[in-house]
Amino acid sequence: MVKLLVTGGAGFIGSNFIRHILKEHHDWYIVNLDKLTYAGNLENLKDVEDNPRYRFVRGDIADRELVDHLFREEKFDFVTNLAAESHVDRSILDPAPFIETNIKGTQVLLEAARQHGVRKFLQVSTDEVYGSLGPDDPPFTEESPIRPNSPYSASKAAADLMCRAYFVTYGLPVVITRCSNNYGPYQHPEKFIPTIILNALADKPIPVYGDGQNVRDWIHVEDHCRALDLVLQKGQAGEVYNIGANNEHTNLDIVKTILRLMNKPESLIAFVKDRPGHDWRYAINPAHIETTFSWRPQRDFTTGLYDLIIWYTANRIWWERVKSGGAPGVRGEVV
């Protein structure tokens, strides 16, 4: 039995990743360590909570005693670190939680992995560590310099550098992935695409920063999870793998596409004051992971958006509870 620790598994990407691993690897056992902050929701994993190959533990990755206890108890083969404070606007208001979780928490996990001899440590990062691109700049590669522009991306960049240090100094088998913007089911309602869908469903104004011309590369969370699975198993220690879908769109174009798919008027668009340090463009060159593992994204973007509109429409109870702050019943240990 292969034992995998997934941190932040009750979040958007984490819950989709756990579901993917349980489906694809019938001899894998997963421990999900999650603090259950505003972004963590056990209802994201309601369909697997009784699976005998899944265990939930409520706790903080920055808690050294708890993390060490889990590593001694379970003797993990692999670690996938998805636990992170990840909302840029929140990091601008208060950077402190981002330092605690994204930097200190990652170091605590790395040290436990070193002490207990894990086979592979996968750090799930973001393309935001590279900073911003101009309209005509080539997409980021793994060799692009790290130039974060927000407290959130700075904290993720620091965590990536700590991972590199543990690989170079201690020989810990660490791999890092940096992915473009994700979309898909179970994404928190405060995020960009869910906000568009839910506001459109309610015929409410859809806030768009600045002139809406900021560009992002979008990938479906299921394609991201397939890539993470490959890198976790086959990635070379010390390597960075960029994950993207060559799918660049302006924010305004995405809003208009969703409104068209929902038969809603563009008069719902409401331009608002731009946020501080708003990166102009992100774009990922995924050639490294494509050539190394023959990985390609499979989900068409427009089809994926249409499917997501249907999902949010059908899962009103889920997102209403999240938006209202209603806490699901906690099933699992507090170690």
Automatic annotation (TrEMBL):
Keywords: Lyase, NAD
Top-level taxonomic group: Bacteria
Single annotated GO MF: dTDP-glucose 4,6-dehydratase activity
Needed co-factor(s): NAD(+)
Domain NAD(P)-binding as annotated: residue spans: 5-306
Entry annotated with the keyword tRNA-binding: no
UniProt enzyme class: lyase
Catalysed transformations (reactions): dTDP-alpha-D-glucose = dTDP-4-dehydro-6-deoxy-alpha-D-glucose + H2O
InterPro entries: dTDP_Gluc_deHydtase, NAD(P)-bd_dom, NAD(P)-bd_dom_sf
A biological process term (GO) from this entry: nucleotide-sugar metabolic process
Pfam family, any one: GDP_Man_Dehyd
EC number: 4.2.1.46
Family membership noted in the UniProt record: Belongs to the NAD(P)-dependent epimerase/dehydratase family. dTDP-glucose dehydratase subfamily.
Name the record gives this protein: dTDP-glucose 4,6-dehydratase
Organism in which the protein naturally occurs: Moorella mulderi DSM 14980
